[in-house]
Structures are given as structure tokens and as C-alpha cells.
Design a protein that fits this description.
This protein is α+β, with helices and mostly antiparallel strands. It has 2 domains: 8-72, no CATH class; 76-136, no CATH class. The chain has 6 helices and 8 strands; from the N terminus they run βααααββββββααβ. The strands form 3 sheets. Strands 7-3-8 form a 3-stranded antiparallel β-sheet. Strands 4-5-6 form a 3-stranded antiparallel β-sheet, with no helix packed on it. Strands 1-2 form a two-stranded parallel ribbon. It starts with 7 loop residues before the first strand and ends in an 8-residue tail after the last strand.
Length: 143
């Protein structure tokens, strides 16, 4: 988080949530924290999950972003491949070579290979896999 009076960097989906709730941040954030997750829409579930990762610091980050304005990083995603395990861990879609090759394979996140994709890079990923994308900060450590 940056110092008071400066723009705060937040994930793109947080910036979207702030914009959608710009007229009532406090009540929306309170309602979100008290909500039954199963009753939330997709964007609120994403915000709920992100807040749950580190409640205190993420709430403070949202507060600073609302107070001092914000900017966002280009959101990065990972694509877990359903029902595929590699070396005992969840397998993720990875690029073989570069995105332009159109070749992909499965890798664990504990590798030097690229398993993250920006919005622009997702255009090169086959549609059948894109539907499984999740923000990389929501990935639970395999331990």
C-alpha cells in the first residue's frame, strides 16, 4: 500500500467492485463481509474470497483506495485444469514455448514455467480452458 494521499494499487476486480459500489462503499463492504457466500453474485464472490485471504490488510487497502483514489495492475489469472493432478498437486495450464505457438501443457504452480495469463494473453488460450480462469491471488498454496 502506498502512503496517504497517493494512489493505491489494487487488483483490477477490486477496482471494478469499488466502481460498482461507489455510492455506498461502507454499507456494501459490511454487507459483503456478513453475507452468505452462496447468495453472492460472481463478482461479489471474487471480492469475498480476496478479502478472506487477509481480511485486515485487504479492508485497509480498500479503505485507502476509496479515500485516496486507486490504480490497478493488469490482472493475472491461472487456469486450473479440472481433474488433473501433477506430482500430487493441482495442475495448471502452461504455455509451451510462447503464447503464439498455440501449444499448452499442464504444470504445477511450483515450477519456473509460466502459468499466469493477463487478459490480453487469455485471447490466445483455447476457449475450452478460459472458462476455468481464476485470479492468481485466489489460488490456495498446495503446501
Amino acid at each position: 500500500m502506498e502512503k496517504d494521499g497517493q494512489k493505491v494499487k489494487v487488483p483490477q476486480f477490486v477496482a471494478g467492485w469499488i466502481e460498482r459500489n461507489k455510492d455506498h462503499h461502507c454499507s456494501s463492504l459490511g454487507e459483503l463481509l456478513l453475507a452468505d457466500k452462496s447468495e453472492l453474485d460472481k463478482s461479489d464472490k471474487q471480492m469475498f474470497d480476496w478479502l478472506s485471504l487477509d481480511l485486515e490488510s485487504h479492508v485497509l487497502l480498500v479503505r485507502e483506495a476509496v479515500k485516496n483514489c486507486y490504480t490497478f495492475d493488469n490482472q493475472e489469472y491461472v487456469i486450473p485444469i479440472p481433474n488433473i493432478i501433477a506430482y500430487g498437486n493441482q495442475a495448471y495450464l502452461s504455455v509451451y514455448g510462447s503464447e503464439k505457438t498455440g501449444k499448452f501443457h499442464a504444470m504445477t504452480k511450483n515450477t519456473d514455467e509460466k502459468i499466469t495469463f493477463t487478459e490480453d494473453e487469455l485471447d490466445e488460450v483455447p476457449e475450452m480452458y478460459r472458462k476455468f480462469k481464476i485470479p492468481k491471488e485466489l489460488v490456495i498454496d498446495d503446501g
